[in-house]
Amino acid sequence: MLQQLSIQNYATVDKLEIEFKAGMSVITGETGAGKSIMLGALGLTLGDRADKGIVRSGARKTDICAEFDIANIKAAQQWLDDNDLETDPDSTSCLLRRIVNSDGRSKGYINGSPVTMASLKALGEMLLDIHSQHEHQSLLHRGTHQRLLDDFCVAPKVLAQMQDIWKQWQKNAQQINQLSNRSQEDSAQTQLLSYQLNELNELGIASDEVPKLEAEFKSLNHADETVASVQTALTLCGDDEEQNAKTAMHQALTALRDLPEKNDRVNNIIGLLENASIQLDEAVSDLRAFADEFEANPERLDQVNTRLGVLHAIARKHKVKPDGLTEVIADLRQQLDLIENSDAELEKLEAAGAQLRQDYIKVAKDVSKQRKKGSGKLATQVNEQLKQLGMPHASLEVQLLASDKDKLALGGLETIEFLVSTNPGQPAKPLIKIASGGELSRISLAIQVITAQTSHVPSLVFDEVDVGIGGGVAKVVGQLLRQLAERTQILCVTHQAPVAGQGHNHFFVSKFTKAGSTLTQIAELSDSEKVREVARMLGGEELSDESLAHAEKMVATS
Q1: Of the chain's two ends, which shows fewer C-beta atoms within 10 Å, N or C?
Q2: According to the model, what pLDDT value does residue 295 have?
Q3: Contact between residue 450 and residue 471 where contact means Cβ atoms under 8 Å apart
Q4: Beta pairing partners, 128
Q5: E strands within 356-436?
Q6: 199 contacts 314 by C-beta, under 8 angstroms
Q7: How many beta carbons lie within 10 A of that of residue 550, not counting itself?
């Protein structure tokens, strides 16, 4: 749902912030006041083309932000996650921003991260749909027709199953293609892999050999220093006949023990020295054992150094660290096994692909059956709505075109397109070829009313869907929009009082002059202001008691 729209320096808007609510919001104003400015700004946040002429005169740039609540829009949440554009996992807010500079350059952002216009369009189509004679119109795309029909009549589990099988099938086909293309290179690759593996196997590398050799090398390389240091420590601790640590410790203990009077503090010191004496004896014993066992071994040092040199050289050849050589061996063995078993693997993949194709066609036929059954029902219900909208001769057809058997797609065995005939005797044409923006808007309204219960687009905008219709039909349009607003957020630009009277929320657009510059402002109306605005739309600027009474009744019965 659209929560807030912030506009700065766009056309005749200086600075504007609008907060939207659920339900049906109507936008009215005097002719030429700029009622469609808000829709134009919204279109820019959804990736519409920008022109430097939209930047307000004297300003450096246009800055537009649209904030949406996507708590119930799983597709948008998944899209943001897939594209690493979800800034806060606990937030349900999504911010689309568009900046257009005075030189015509523009930038798009989603949740603060720069994105392409294609990304704005892709996400925008999941959040909001603008129905007008403007370019941004998802109902002009066949993909939308298929989605609406599937949402209307195809069981979600069956549709998801078909798409999942198709994805598995395509992944299987890619693996077959990769394995088939690789077979020509297998001979040379096998020779190289075998040579590399044999070379490593001849070295007999153990899994923990490198760290052990490096530790031994460090020890052997410093053997003379180690022997000298150990001997020095032994001399100082106990081997010096004249003065050593053991003798000094014994003398200190004797002096303290011979004291005639010993308090607790002295006894504690004696205990500490006794413990230290025991530990010193153990250290001297360990030093003597180490000195007896340890010896410099130049020959072994040379062996270790040579072995490490060989291992480092082969590691550089394979562009890994020496302790990663065992992983290289395992990888080479795996590659060889895969090549040697490629024929069996290819046969296995081809059998799996054939089965997946059969599974796909079986489920896709079920989807086609549901589509054929639902297409007639959808067309009938839409045509009934078109009659109520003042288009008694208009007729919608849902066309199912069978796909090429060799080009089966994710969407099933057929493509879907909505065709419309607006006059008797005229052949049905694609929606994009309907000349009248008003007709297209009402056809869109009829389709959306019927598919609203199953459609996942949370916000719909209708720009003057009441163009060229009378009061009776305008009342029906207003009622349909309000009915649609029970399930979907509706924004409606209108000049018809019966439509405006149906709104849950009402915004009024006006122009004013400040410092010689014309500016546009939009204000939300209170209940009493709403009645006066509907009365103005009924009878003009001069409000009469009759027009006010009529407007009050119209608003009260909405």
Answers
A1: C
A2: 66
A3: no
A4: 459
A5: 395-402, 414-421, 429-430
A6: yes
A7: 18
The pLDDT confidence band at residue 358, using thresholds 50, 70 and 90, is: very high
Q: How far apart are CA 554 and CA 478, in angstroms?
A: 11
Question: Residue 83, CB half-sphere, CA atoms under 13 Å: how many?
Answer: 19
Dist CA 439 CA 446 (whole Å): 11
Question: Are residues 134 and 122 in contact, defined by beta-carbon separation less than 8 angstroms?
Answer: no
At residue 465, the pLDDT reads: 66
Measured torsion, CA atoms of residues 316, 318, 322, 323, in degrees rounded to the nearest 10: 160
DSSP class of residue 542 equals S
DSSP string, 227-278: HHHHHHHHIIIII-SS--HHHHHHHHHHHHHT-SS--HHHHHHHHHHHHHHH
Q: Are 61 and 68 in contact (CB under 8 A)?
A: no
Mean pLDDT, residues 162-179: 91
Instruction: Give the per-residue pLDDT at 415.
Output: 93
Pair 544, 37: CB distance under 8 Å: no
Alpha carbon of 536 to those of 463, 490, 492, 530, 542: distances in Å? 20, 23, 18, 10, 7
Return the closest-CA partner of residue 38 out of 555, 522, 526, 536.
522
Answer whether residue 300 shows pLDDT above 90: no
The predicted structure's pLDDT at residue 12: 85
Q: At 342, is the pLDDT very low, low, confident or very high (cuts 50, 70, 90)? A: confident
Quote the pLDDT of residue 306.
85
**Tokens standing for residue 418:** 């909505």
The answer to whether residue 135 scores a pLDDT higher than 60 is no
- Separation between Cα atoms, residue 196 and residue 306, nearest integer Å: 21
Q: Which amino acid is at 475?
A: K
> How does DSSP assign 357-379, residue by residue?
HHHHHHHHHHHHHHHHHHHHHHH
Residues 6+ apart with CB under 8 A from 69: 1, 3, 92, 93, 94
Angle at alpha carbon of residue 420, lines to 417 and 426, rounded to 5°: 130
User: Is 382 within 8 Å of 160 (Cβ atoms)?
Assistant: no
Q: How confident is the model at residue 396 (pLDDT cuts 50, 70, 90)?
A: very high
Contact (Cβ atoms closer than 8 angstroms) between residue 465 and residue 438: yes
- With 80 as the cut, is the pLDDT of residue 227 above it? no
- The whole-angstrom separation of Cα 359 and Cα 308 is 57
Determine contact, residues 482/24, Cβ cutoff 8 Å: yes
Residues 6+ apart with CB under 8 A from 156: none
pLDDT, average across residues 158-170: 94
Residue range 500-542, pLDDT digits in tens: 999 999 999 888 888 777 788 888 999 899 999 999 888 776 7
First to last CA, the chain: 23
Delimit the domains of the chain by residue range: 188-340
